[in-house]
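Okay, is this right?
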Amino acid sequence: MGARIEHLVTSGTFSLDGGTWEVDNNVWIVGDDTEVVVIDAPHDADAIAEAVGARTLRAIVCTHAHDDHVREAPKLSARTGAPILLHPDDLPVWELTHPGRAPDGELADGRAVDIAGIELQVLHTPGHAPGAVCLYAPALGVVFTGDTLFSGGPGATGRSFSDHSTIVDSIRRRLLTLPLDTVVHTGHGPSTTIAAEAPGFDQDLSGEG
């Protein structure tokens, strides 16, 4: 069987700037019957490892370094041997959660993560976090947006390391230029499409997300 997408939801907390909130996070597993990558590792490494099963985990790809997306990455890495990949601009955020454990590799704009015969193209989309990335899989017609774009608009930008005008620019330049029928798999909540979200960016989005 060729490359496919599997979905897992884990629950826990997100903490930043002195506050803590209950959150449900999407975990996306991309690959085939032999090998996969995991996009984000929040809350429950055991559940993620169980979903991976006997397949080889090639990488733990972090869309950004907020603790609800990377908290279990080192544990999952230790259990499976998979490297943790993160854009270097998010290292200051990563170090808030894992000060003694650096990621194993870097995600860079324009490069690709290869898995099961397809490419996940790395799109640097700062705004929600300085090193936020999206992963575009043209062969599957999907983009994994982390917390950059949700069903209903851009990710939040009211906390440290974030900027609203930057995230809107990232979405307009890097995501809205994708084919309109591209499915958007988000870091929280339901999936959407580029076509469904594009009209919201026709106006001047000058407020906080």
User: Anything to note?
Assistant: Residues 89 and 131 are 4 Å apart (CA to CA). The helical segments are 45-52, 67-70, 73-80, 91-97, 164-175, 194-197. The chain is about 20% helix and 35% strand.
